[in-house]
Design brief:
The chain is an alpha/beta fold and 231 residues long. The protein is built from seven helices and six strands.
Length: 231
């Protein structure tokens, strides 16, 4: 979907989700002048979920931690080289990435955060008071991951909605951020709780243009866009 101001936004869907779930956000952004691209992450999208449930594919593996950011960078590359074209010209050197859940984690990686296995011992501590549902996948992916920095300097700002982060990124990792961050979490998100997954680990400096928004009553799924055209 294309707007008219030349500014580019990419939207990264979450685990077992699909680009179509985020058309509401795309329509709202396009109505405000932005050009919007909704990439698909084939290794962890809705089709992969259906193949897994039918016994035709294994669950998403640790490689998704590096493949998802590469999907986004590849789309920016294709737009820069004009292998992928939109209705009008876009600035591919100043890109905004919006992500939900694992798409939000992807956006943070593109902004400079690098996963670390430092927190792996916590995965075996069943009594850890901060243990939450998102740790199931965080621990699974961390155990087999060797992820280099996947920062994309063309990404100048991100909006990360409900990102799993507490085990993936060590304390102080936010110092490596090269893009401005809008971090959004819901007070009733039981899948990726705001604390410890958002409030505690992200010591975002507001003087850098970063913001943390806690949506009262928001849960993991109603923070996605609705079905209406206004998002």
């Amino acid at each position: 979907r294309s707007g008219g101001n030349g500014r580019l936004v990419l939207i990264s869907h979450g685990l077992w989700d699909s680009p179509s779930s985020f058309e509401g956000w795309a329509q709202l952004l396009a109505a405000n002048g932005y050009s919007v691209v909704l990439p698909r992450h084939p290794g962890s999208d809705h089709d992969q979920q259906q193949a897994m449930l039918s016994g035709q594919a294994p669950p998403p593996g640790p490689d998704e931690l590096k493949l998802r950011p590469k999907d986004i960078s590849a789309v920016i590359d294709a737009l820069t080289s004009r292998q992928l074209s939109l209705a009008g010209p876009v600035q591919t050197d100043r890109v905004v990435v919006v992500g939900h859940s694992w798409g939000a984690t992807t956006s943070l990686q593109l902004a400079g955060l690098k996963p670390s296995s430092r927190a792996l011992p916590r995965c075996n501590d069943q009594a850890d008071p901060e243990r939450n549902l998102s740790w199931v996948l965080q621990c699974s992916w961390l155990q087999g991951s060797r992820v280099d920095e996947l920062k994309d300097q063309r990404v100048v700002a991100i909006a990360a909605v409900s990102p799993p982060v507490s085990l993936l990124f060590p304390p102080g990792a936010e110092a490596d951020l090269s893009a401005r961050v809008l971090l959004v979490s819901g007070s009733r998100d039981w899948v990726v709780p705001p604390d410890p997954e958002a409030v505690t680990p992200m010591r975002l400096r507001e003087d850098k243009g970063n913001r943390l928004v806690l949506v009262q009553g928001g849960d993991h799924f109603n923070l996605r866009p609705g079905q209406k055209a206004d998002g």
